[in-house]
Design a protein that fits this description.
With about 350 residues, the chain is of the alpha+beta class. The protein has two domains: about 1-185, 2-Layer Sandwich (Ribosomal Protein S5, domain 2); about 190-325, 2-Layer Sandwich (Alpha-Beta Plaits), CATH 3.30.70.890. The chain contains eleven helices and twelve strands. It has helices spanning about 25, 80-90, 115-130, 135-150, 160-165, 190-195, 210-220, 225-245, 250-265, 275-285, 310-320, and strands spanning about 1-15, 30-45, 50-55, 60-65, 100-105, 170-175, 180-185, 200, 290-295, 300-305, 325, 335-340. The strands form two sheets. Strands 1, 2, 3, 4, 5, 6, 7 and 12 form an eight-stranded mixed beta sheet that branches. A four-stranded antiparallel beta sheet has the order 9-10-8-11.
Length: about 350
């Protein structure tokens, strides 16, 4: 028997950073995001023998060990190991031989929530296999705990919930145990128009988000005035952008993205660099009205809002750089699993 699962990656439109502790604990955070047709995949093969095999096909990483109740971490496939270890601890299923193979449509550090989405996909596969009592909230919360507590990886809350729930969501956070996911009912014509007006551009470079997030965390802990003021504005932009989207005021999206990008850069000096700034200015000069990097910043995927068919002039203008454009569509479902 083969068990498969997949979970969608996400675009963060507004509110990014307000889902990170301690800001969300003290002030409350809010996020507007949407999942797209790029995925993290997990496959569990039940194999004969006495070994557990872990494999990340996209990263060409492989690990094998005898069946055990705990797999030590050593920097190779630690996310996969951590899911297994936590499920053994929390649900006490009997260890047995299996092969877990994963693949992600975007590289690590791309800004699309790939690491958290992968954890959600793996958990979803185990839920399918073992019939574990976890709903979407439970999977997202456990994925967060595995990353942030078991592996001490810096980051926020939105990625796990986006991957588990899917679709366009407005999320509100008051600490990691008080999360509310509000699905948005957006007219199809608005979504179709938004897809036409948005360009997704991979800068060709990934980044270590933890360094950027740790810088922001430090600024919040130290009550750095500029950072707190910027995060407050970023949170407000999530409400403004939600309203614009629901009401079909799509041309406002570009200007709101631009405002959010300006405020995002004020939260940490690691958010941008001269190349990113040049890319952004080139896109604006070619007709884009706004945009931002999806995720923590520093590299990965840039999205630009290009109204009135300016997408074609923006594409032409950015051809001189080493990045590439990625076609995408929005998806309306979260993590899925099945047996074969």
């Amino acid at each position: 028997m083969i068990i498969r699962a997949k979970a969608p990656l996400r675009l963060g439109f507004a509110g990014g950073g307000t889902d990170v502790s301690p800001y969300c604990d003290e002030y409350g955070g809010s996020i507007l995001n949407a999942t797209i047709n790029m995925y993290a995949y997990a496959t569990i093969d039940l194999i004969n023998g006495k070994n557990i095999v872990l494999c990340a096909s996209d990263r060409k990483e492989y690990f094998e060990t005898e069946v055990t109740t705990f797999i030590p971490y050593n920097g190779t496939l630690d996310l996969l190991k951590a899911v297994y270890n936590r499920l053994i601890k929390d649900f006490a299923f009997k260890p047995q031989s299996f092969r877990l193979t994963t693949y992600v449509d975007a590289p690590a550090g791309s800004g699309l929530g790939s690491s958290s989405t992968l954890v959600v996909a793996i958990l979803k596969a185990f839920v399918e296999w073992l019939n574990l009592p976890l709903d979407d909230y439970g999977i997202a919360q456990l994925a967060w705990s595995i990353e942030r507590e078991d592996l001490a990886m810096s980051g926020g809350l939105q990625d796990q919930y986006a991957a588990a729930f899917g679709g366009f969501n407005f999320m509100q956070f008051k600490g990691h145990q008080n999360v509310l996911v509000n699905p948005l009912r957006i007219k199809r014509k608005y979504l179709d128009e938004l897809e036409i007006n948005l360009l997704l551009y991979y800068t060709g470079t990934s980044r270590l988000s933890s360094k950027i997030i740790n810088s922001q965390i430090s600024n919040v802990k130290n009550k750095t005035v500029n950072t707190l003021a910027a995060l407050n504005k970023i949170k407000q932009s999530s409400y403004d952008m939600k309203e614009a989207l629901l009401m079909g005021r799509l041309n406002d999206m570009g200007y709101l993205l631009n405002e959010a990008w300006i405020n995002k850069k004020a939260t940490s000096t690691a958010i941008t660099n001269p190349i990113i700034d040049e890319l952004y200015e080139t896109a604006l000069d070619a007709g884009a009205t706004g945009g931002k990097i999806s995720g923590a910043g520093g590299g990965g995927f840039f999205m630009f809002f290009c109204p009135e068919l300016t997408r074609y002039s923006v594409i032409e203008a950015l051809k001189k750089y080493d990045g590439e454009f990625k076609r995408f569509t929005f998806t309306d479902y979260g993590a899925q699993s099945w047996k074969y």
